[in-house]
Amino acid sequence: MNKTKSNILMAAIEVVSKKGYHPATMDEIAKEANVAKGTLYYYFESKESIFNDMIDSGISMIREEILEKIKVTEDSMQQLRIITRAILTLVFERRNLFKIIISQLWGEDIRQIELRKKMNEVMDFIEAYIINCVEDGYFEAANTRLKAFNYFGAMMTTAVYYLNLEEPIDHASETMIEEILSQL
Amino acid sequence: MNKTKSNILMAAIEVVSKKGYHPATMDEIAKEANVAKGTLYYYFESKESIFNDMIDSGISMIREEILEKIKVTEDSMQQLRIITRAILTLVFERRNLFKIIISQLWGEDIRQIELRKKMNEVMDFIEAYIINCVEDGYFEAANTRLKAFNYFGAMMTTAVYYLNLEEPIDHASETMIEEILSQL
Amino acid sequence: MNKTKSNILMAAIEVVSKKGYHPATMDEIAKEANVAKGTLYYYFESKESIFNDMIDSGISMIREEILEKIKVTEDSMQQLRIITRAILTLVFERRNLFKIIISQLWGEDIRQIELRKKMNEVMDFIEAYIINCVEDGYFEAANTRLKAFNYFGAMMTTAVYYLNLEEPIDHASETMIEEILSQL
Amino acid sequence: MNKTKSNILMAAIEVVSKKGYHPATMDEIAKEANVAKGTLYYYFESKESIFNDMIDSGISMIREEILEKIKVTEDSMQQLRIITRAILTLVFERRNLFKIIISQLWGEDIRQIELRKKMNEVMDFIEAYIINCVEDGYFEAANTRLKAFNYFGAMMTTAVYYLNLEEPIDHASETMIEEILSQL
DNA sequence: AATGAATGAGATTTCATTCAT
DNA sequence: TATGAATGAAATCTCATTCAT
């Protein structure tokens, strides 16, 4: 991607994660990106489209990262462990982006409805691996969709917990991973 | 509380849950409440204060509801079970308010920081019961704060899952309760 | 109509006739009307809707004025003479509004296409009276639509001519009327 | 003229006639001309100067075309007939340019005031031929300036009428010419 | 000769808030 | 107690123009 464009995107993540979508102004994003306001509109159609690009690049980053890392094993439980570690690491490393995603999951704006659709696809992706684990006998057969939700929710709340600690850790500890998987 | 005032509060919950805090305008809230815009300012100082009242009355409602219901038993595990059922029921019955709470937990607006403080108090409240359970030997001793977080997160994700089903259930099933408690 | 609203409409005619639709800013209209910019939006949805109201009230004014005046006679030629006098008088009295109408007849903006539709209805109206004259033997049968166009065009160019004179006259002279009718 | 430059001028006529002066953007003109936006500024000082060049080349084209064609006769009435045919033909062939001229005659922008001056020169030119006709006894002596206005106005309205027909004709018919001249 | 990324002044529009009634 | 006309600060967005290449 063009350097200025990705620069703007990073600035937007920074500002939006701090302020939320609406209070984050184009002026602030421009200032943070060290470009003129007009430049934002040279690269993006609207504030909404900056938001969408932000989310899309975030989600595809997760997917690519995970797909790359699970190649090393064929064992379904091992794969789920790898996915967990990968997502937790990403949540820590790109906490601002995740804050935005979580806070925008609610509400009936097109922006928010679209985001929910995208997150449902992420759920599909995770559920597929949980199904593999069930088929391989690691978990007992059950509502795998709900399990995927709980898995994701557990990751989020764990992350939120650690993110709020005074001395935030910046990596996914093995303890956290086991804690989350034990809930499945 | 004055009837007009609670009327406005209900209208605000309706509109804010649908649109989010910022896109919900005072005009819309007034229209939904069937009062003139000026009336909002007769009863509330500002939009922000409507929001705060909304949250405060929601949270104290939870607390009162729970304190009332757990009276029937002294057994800590029974009490946690009752709390779970109560919260789940409230989440279903007042889903709009909870949507607002969850979506406003993030970000650095005064409004949002204040909300997080209030939710931390709710966590204290829940943690206290989890500690009782640990002391009574129901769970093994561990990070009870994280347990409280996970417990609350599990409830939220479970609720979100069921709220998104085609045929939403409108009560807390015993299955859900056991599912959540088993994760502790 | 509300006083403030008609006040804004008059200010808009003043400014738009001087500057044209696009260069006329909402700031200037507000200043001319002695109200705050927000007030414009309290009474009108948009700049476009101010324009539309401006045109609509102008056109219905023409129609009402004419319908009122032609009541006095049943003779078709007399009626056409009355219409001519009425339109010319209006063009002189409300020259600013007519300037706007003429300048906005061209182009493919929705605003302009709508205006052309409205002016076509005015043409229908005029043509009807020309047809009466033809039927009564005042003119020889011919393309009455073209006659209506020419009639209107003649009125406009005559008006433009007199409006550009150093010492503008402010009424429709009988000479002008006969000049225009002689062209039919 | 340089090919790229005349290319830009044609593109500008196309876009401005469709949209009007202000809504026509330099971006659109550049796109229509298949050049980069910077190229517009390589050949023209500003948007305003593109407009002026557009008009000037249009007007001098009329003048040259007419001066060329009236050479064939010395009879003043014949010359006026030739002028009428020439202008009507041009109006049909370059209708977009004429649309722009007519729509920009109104208003007090420098651009528009300049255009009116130029059109007044065209009127001088036409009036001169009408005076010749009067002197040769073809019309009775009268306000020749007004006659020139009416003559031009008649041509415009006739043109507008035929341009709006379902099946537009693309040439000046002899009927139209006689119709216009008979009004003098 | 030609480009297109970058700009910033200025446009339209929104909306929480005020205040006279 | 309740109203709603009026406000103005601040938001998003547009676009003619510049300039380094």
UniProtKB/TrEMBL annotation, chains A, B, C, D:
Keywords: DNA-binding. InterPro entries: DNA-bd_HTH_TetR-type_CS, Homeodomain-like_sf, HTH-type_Tx_Regulator, HTH_TetR, Tet_transcr_reg_TetR-rel_C_sf. Residues 25-44 bind DNA. PANTHER family: ACREF/ENVCD OPERON REPRESSOR-RELATED, ACREF_ENVCD OPERON REPRESSOR-RELATED. Residues 2-62 form the HTH tetR-type domain. It comes from the Bacteria. The keyword ATP-binding does not apply. It holds the Pfam family TetR_N. This is TetR/AcrR family transcriptional regulator. SUPFAM superfamilies: Homeodomain-like, Tetracyclin repressor-like, C-terminal domain. The keyword DNA-binding applies. It comes from Fusibacter paucivorans.
